[in-house]
Amino acid sequence: MSVLVITGTGTEVGKTVVTAAVAATALAAGRSVAVLKAAQTGVRPDEPGDAAEVARLAGAVTTAEVARYPEPLAPATAARRVGRAPVHPHEVAEAAAKLATEHDLVLVEGAGGLLVRFDPAGGTLADAARLLSAPVLVVASAGLGTLNTTELTARELRSRGLALAGIVIGSWPAAPDLASRCNLADLPDVAGAPLLGSVPAGSGALSPTAFRAAAPHWLAPRLDGTWDAEAFHVREAPRAS
């Protein structure tokens, strides 16, 4: 796996922090890593974006963006409103493929969910993943409502013939409610894919040193980590009434 596409079931689910955790864990395993942000929205030219945040937390990664727009909107809308060229899936794929010639692992982080539009023709991150023949890692929220959005994302990936690498919970609460704890069993079931990690809420606020030391403990061996899904489930899942 030289390219891994990372998407979310929506916005604000912890996608960038998970990307940083995957990058940090791969670096700890001795792999060279590049992080490509397909379309950065909501930041000015002089502000650090998501790729820079991944580098701050994870360490020595190569970072790149295909395009950047100032308003926090879907990329196609953000591009239209400022009169700039949109991002096209083939541009994302070409940039990722070039990085893959120079790195062991390229992480392609999307914007929002899988079908957020990049361009007026309806191009999406899913189209870039197809061009790359790359597996997709889905970052999901922990609580109520996540089963629906996760299953919809998984079904869409399969309908397009794309490989779903697995699910990572982007922000596991310190005091999980009943829905969150039940979702540990239900998420892999509705997705038809394994749970590959759980990142504690607030991890993005850790110091880079603490983040890098902890990241491998949040991710499963398939992502170079040591996280044990079964042990986590036993510890966190609710007991039958």
UniProtKB/TrEMBL annotation:
One Pfam family this sequence matches: AAA_26
Coiled coil, from the record: none
UniProt pathway annotation: Cofactor biosynthesis; biotin biosynthesis; biotin from 7,8-diaminononanoate: step 1/2
Residues annotated for Mg(2+) binding in this entry: T16, D50, E109
Gene Ontology cellular component terms for the protein in this record: cytosol
EC numbers: 6.3.3.3
Active site: K37
Annotated binding of substrate, by residue: T41
One of the protein's GO biological processes: biotin biosynthetic process
Function: Catalyzes a mechanistically unusual reaction, the ATP-dependent insertion of CO2 between the N7 and N8 nitrogen atoms of 7,8-diaminopelargonic acid (DAPA, also called 7,8-diammoniononanoate) to form a ureido ring.
CC cofactor: Mg(2+)
Gene3D superfamilies (UniProt xref): P-loop containing nucleotide triphosphate hydrolases (3.40.50.300)
Name of this protein: ATP-dependent dethiobiotin synthetase BioD
Record organism: Streptomyces swartbergensis
Domain of life: Bacteria
Localisation: Cytoplasm
Enzyme class: ligase
NCBIfam families documented for this protein: bioD (TIGR00347)
Main location: cytoplasm
